[in-house]
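As described in the Methods, two query proteins were run sequentially through the folding procedure within a single session, without resetting any intermediate state between them. The first query and its resulting structure tokens are shown here.
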Amino acid sequence: MKRLQSTLLLLLFVPLIKPAPQTRQDLHIIYDYGTDNFEETILNRDYEDKYLDGKNIKEKESIIPDMQRFQLQKDESATLTPKKENEEMPTCLLCVCLLGSVYCEEVDIDVVPPLPKESAYLYARFNKIKKLTAKDFADIPNLRRLDFTGNLIKDIEDSTFSKLSLLEELSLAENQLLKLPVLPSKLTLFNAKHNKITSEGIKANTFKKLSNLTFLYLDHNALESVPLNLPESLRVIHLQFNNITSITDDTFCKANDTRYIRDHIEEIRLEGNPIILGKYPNSFICLKRLPIGSYI
């Protein structure tokens, strides 16, 4: 009788007992196990476990503003306007320094930058330099070549090149010069074409002591006469497109020496001047080649 009562009670309470709810992990495994997407489901579950709880969501959200701030700082730094105060920048950052050569071309400098003491070549073409002074090269004794083509140079101190005893090539082409400074004695090439130089702006002895000068370019200026005392070493003389109206028997030759031959000169250009070369036959008797220009 007691056994029957126990059985009846058990039958009454069994329907009231419910199994414990399955966890999210159990649901994932039961639902996807054995399917083709099982591995993908496991990866998705790991992603959710890592980012979808409250703590990690906040961490993720805090990362995003930091990344945005970093990108903003990067964009702002990329649009900063570079400094125009070139003199405040080290020369070899503003220019290019390579084995004794300094290249400062088209960098908008308006003065000669401080140069490394070992500099032998300076290329400062197409800038805004207006003046050259002795201080610019006072501590650079090894300079052999200077090129200031295409600047705005109007004035050069007479002592600017006085300490450059090794200087061989000097280009001042395409500037605004009215006169020439004292030139270093070892020059082999001097180029001052396309300036505003007048005959009064060239002293009588400017070229006399330049015994190594080989190439002289003074074309496209305002010269009224051929410079005096041109050295014997000259091979090429360009004087075209000036205002030269006359020459003398001593301009290229020696009036008192009919045997004198000027051996080295290969080219003299005088075209584009008002002078009629045919009127001065004795001025060329020492030359192996007649100057280029108008003879009639």
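Immediately afterward, the second query was submitted; its sequence and tokens are:
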Amino acid sequence: MEYERPLFFRVMQYAARADRDVVGMVSGNPDWEPPAALREGLAEYAEADIEAFQYPPSEGLTKLRAEIAQRRGVDIEQVVVTNGAGEANYLAMAAALDRNSGDELLLTDPVYPYYPGKTELLGGTERYVPVAEDGQLDPATVREHASEDTAAILVNTPNNPTGAVYDEATMRELVAIAEDNDALLLSDEVYDHFDYSGRFASALGVDSEHRIVTNSFSKSMAITGFRVGYAVFPEALVDDAKTRHMLVNVAGSQPAQRAVLTALQETGPDYYADNRDLMAERVETFTAALDDAGAEYTTPDGGFYVLARFDDFPGTLDNVERLIDEAGVAGMPGDAFGSAREDWLRFALVTPRVEEAADRLAEYFR
């Protein structure tokens, strides 16, 4: 099966080779401190008995799964701890296709590039549903595209790259569409702690055997390198998901899971609120500078990203490289996220140099 390698690595490598200082705004790597309790959990693990250095349970540490289950209001047996949200989404998409109820995955356009890549890798067929100018997804449009060929509807809320947040009514209707077409709703909620609108609603709020929710601690705890995520499966699908997980990974990292468990148990809501406020301030700073540059842009309701469009400067890879060389700012080409925003550029605001990057863009395009 042929599939395209996402452009993220190519852009980051180009920026690293540049002959000038470059503000990196390509990847969603948080630049703030993880919870203090996470570092403490790692230190405690270093002094543990040798038994703690061996394989953990394949589906994840029991105490971590129990903590996740309690927080998400689900049964522990539905929870599989994964190698980040990336594996969680892979398992969810595989589960949808393995049901033999269609081979088509409905994706939004614009789309996070790893979704179509995984679809092709798994032998499925992607079909795209357009979103509104503000990134919102109209369930009626999804229903028009859904059919007996639909294996799953895959959504990301808060959304990468649009910043759209889907409310409770939207999520309920998406689950209903999945049920009506004997499909699954796959809801990737990795940015759930970064909702600036107050409207975010998890698909777990809808009781259904036709939805899978994936998430990760990568963004919320600023630990993308730890690779600790999870998926919540319907009871009928969880055993197959555990088997696939075991065959692919054997098990996840025991020290990373133990540290995450400690952080979950000992970190209060202020940690998450402070980082959410930080990101909201960066959005305001960056978009103000885009105003100065005369750009059109999206104001995200959640997540880490801003899409921007500059006159006579389409969001191609060539123009991204030109921006690196001439302005010293590295973003992502809009055409990496599908056809709907191919004239746009996407910027990740997870850098303390947001204001500097914004000034460089304003000066370059003014």
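The longest helix spans residues 269-292. We note this only descriptively and draw no conclusion about the first query from it.
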